[in-house]
Amino acid sequence: MCCAAALNAVRNGAAGTMQPSVQFVPQAALPAGEAYEAFIFRTRQVPTRDGLHDFFNGLCWLNFPATKTKLNQLQAAQIAASGIQPTRGPARDALTIFDENAAFFQGPDALWEALATKDWHTLFVTQRALWSQAQLVLFGHALLEKLVSPRKPITAHVYRAQTAIKSIADVDAWMAADLSAEKLATKPFAHLPVLGVPGWCADNEDSAFYADATVFRPPRPARPKQAQGSGQDGADFGTAGS
Q1: Would you say 165 and 106 are in contact if contact means Cβ atoms under 8 Å apart?
Q2: 169, 137 in Cβ contact below 8 A?
Q3: CA distance 129 to 141
């Protein structure tokens, strides 16, 4: 069974609000010259290649239908306004990063502040017990694909959820309502090497795990405002194209 057919079988067996309003079709259904996101918006069909990357993308559609629909709407609006350019603008760039590599965090302020400032010792050692009050939900399909073969440098773009994550449906509804192109263009992400999360890797029980500065990088020195760019900071953000 091809990937699109397998995902449709799961979709057709779903019930209630978790069932998305899209169908999965082979990649060949995407007309030459039409943008992927524009095609989804126009047809409610998701071109799907055989392979883990698109399979995980399909699973995200099945589990986060409202968020994926909102991202598609925002992408389609950007394409309609600006067309397909040689380089993405800030909004499309952020939308793609979110879609491919985001994770959702909900937890104590002390953990978020340590994560946002790359204070790894506080985040993972001195405040380690606070992780029992936190939740981290993986969303990006490229992130999920990379974690099939876990490596220490794999890093998520973490977006803070301002709602209790009692279920995937809860966070899906909140994210869909919260997201906007303008907000994402500000790159409201924190960079988290996910194998550092307590309980996610046996090796991180030893605090020496976090001494690897090639992964748990210190904050970049402040630069003059006019010299700042939107370059990524972190270890492994690799985002294969959709």
Answers
A1: yes
A2: no
A3: 29
Q: What is the per-residue pLDDT for 231? A: 39
- Where are the extended beta strands (E) located within 118-168? 135-138, 155-160
C-alpha distances out from residue 229 to 20, 161, 186, 218, 234, Å: 37, 25, 11, 18, 15
Same domain, 123 and 185: yes
Which residues partner with 236 through β-bridges? Answer: 154
> From the centroid of its chain, how far is CA 112?
17
132 and 191 share one domain: yes
Token pair 């603008």 is at which residue?
89
| Predicted local confidence at residue 229, as pLDDT | 40
> Please, are residues 104 and 139 in contact by the beta-carbon 8 Å criterion?
yes
* Token duo for residue 191: 């960079």
Return d(Cα 105, Cα 175) in angstroms, integer. Answer: 12
pLDDT on residue 85:
64
Look at residues 201, 75, 67, 40 and name the one whose alpha carbon lies nearest to residue 141: 67
Q: Is 186 helix (H, G, I), strand (E, B) or coil?
A: coil
Whether 104 and 187 map to the same domain: the answer is: yes
At 159, list the tokens: 């977006």
Range of the domain at 43: 3-90
